[in-house]
Specification:
The chain is of the alpha+beta class and 355 residues long. The chain has 2 domains: 129 residues; 159 residues, Rieske Iron-sulfur Protein. The protein has 9 helices and 13 strands. The strands form 4 sheets. The protein has a 5-stranded antiparallel beta sheet with strand order 3-4-5-6-11. The chain has a 4-stranded antiparallel beta sheet with strand order 7-8-9-10, with no helix packed on it. The protein has a two-stranded antiparallel ribbon with strand order 1-2. Strand 8 and strand 9 form a beta hairpin. Helix 3 runs antiparallel to helix 4, helix 3 runs parallel beside helix 6 and helix 4 packs antiparallel against helix 6. The longest helix is centred in the N-terminal third of the chain and has 31 residues. It is elongated and about 115 Å long. The protein starts with 13 loop residues before the first helix and ends with a helix. About 3% of the residues have low confidence.
Length: 355
């Protein structure tokens, strides 16, 4: 748009044009259209002039930090107090996990109180004097470095961290306890193993139950040269931990001629030539399922580890490093095969070398 097309009301008046010309003539340069308005007068807070108000703010900040510490302790205690399968009804959400609700509320409150305490401390007790500073080059001069250090020292002094010991101590307590929440969260990586890998469901008096018929086994049910798989009495497929338990307690039953058993302990732990060994291969834990009747060898189908059941189930071929654990068995008063205890050593792939 040309100057001829500019609306008349948007053009500067003759008086304004003359005033601008005079200003340029006097100063020799154009006037700054963005003049520095300066800072408004500083208004003191009530905490700056009333020590009682300052102490009230100090106690408020300390209270928030203390609540944060208690919440962190509550977060840790929730892992012990609430079972993982417990649920509570919370309107209007409905049924939720009590553990998750407790963890979320306590950790959220701990973090909120630290933040709220820091904000309240800064707004009521730390210095709020407005400071204007000119921009400076990116490269710091020695004078600038000295000024930064001096400003930091002044800020530390004005924060009253040394004077307000109650705030300082409670803040350090809150900041020290909050990281413990992260340590406790490691608990969710999985259940603690304790000594569970060293034990199975087998115990004295537990009947040997046929995996196929789900019936207790009698000696007459196990023919010479046959291979039978068994599980402990009371373990059912619909149990929530069935896979976990059967992975340790799976048993294979073989009947040999007593004269064919070479190992003395194997013979003592058997019943009329019936021997019970763990079905879990000691290489990588595959289930053993192949049996050679003539040689009394069992073969793991995964990596061809071969065990001699007539000689303590020792390894005769393959990568397995240990013999199969044997279960000591007998017969109860009703004529059923029963365990006389648990395995003497952990089942599975060379666990005893690590534990």
């Amino acid at each position: 748009m040309s100057s001829q097309e500019t609306p008349e009301e948007n053009l500067p008046s003759e008086q304004e044009s003359a005033h601008g010309a005079v200003a340029v003539a006097k100063t020799g340069e154009h006037a700054d259209p963005f003049a520095d308005p300066g800072l408004p007068p500083h208004e003191h807070r009530v905490q700056d002039i009333d020590e009682k108000a300052a102490r009230r703010s100090e106690r408020t900040v300390a209270l928030l930090f203390t609540v944060s510490m208690l919440s962190t302790i509550g977060f840790i205690a929730s892992f012990v107090a609430f079972p993982v399968d417990k649920s509570v009804y919370l309107w209007p959400i409905g049924h939720i996990s009590a553990l998750n609700f407790a963890l979320g509320m306590t950790l959220g409150l701990a973090l909120f109180c630290i933040g709220a305490g820091a904000v309240h401390w800064a707004r009521t007790l730390m210095s709020d004097v407005e400071v204007a500073d000119e921009r400076h080059p990116i490269e710091a001069e020695p004078e600038v470095k000295a000024k930064v250090l001096a400003d930091f020292a002044q800020g530390a002094k004005e924060s009253q961290l040394g004077r307000r010991k109650l705030i300082r101590n409670t803040m350090f307590g809150a900041l020290s306890l909050v990281p413990l929440s992260g340590v406790v969260l490691l608990r969710d990586l999985g259940p603690l193993p304790e000594d569970k890998l060293r034990h199975t469901l087998w115990a004295k008096g537990k009947l040997l139950v046929n995996m196929n018929t789900n019936e207790p086994l009698r000696p007459s049910d196990v023919a010479v040269g046959s291979l039978t798989f068994a599980k402990p009495e009371g373990l059912e497929e619909h149990d929530h931990d069935f896979q976990t338990q059967i992975a340790k307690a799976a048993l294979m039953i073989v009947r040999l001629q007593p004269d064919d058993i070479k190992d003395k302990r194997e013979l003592a732990w058997s019943h009329e030539g019936i021997v019970a060994y763990s079905k879990i291969c000691t290489h990588v834990g595959c289930p053993i399922s192949l049996y050679e009747q003539q040689t009394h060898h069992v073969l793991c189908p995964c990596h061809q580890s071969t065990f001699d059941l007539s000689d303590g189930a020792r390894v005769i071929f393959g990568p397995a490093g240990h013999a199969l654990p044997q279960l000591r068995i007998g017969v109860n008063d009703e004529g059923y095969l029963e365990a006389l205890g648990d395995f003497e050593e952990p089942v599975g792939p060379a666990f005893w070398e690590r534990g």
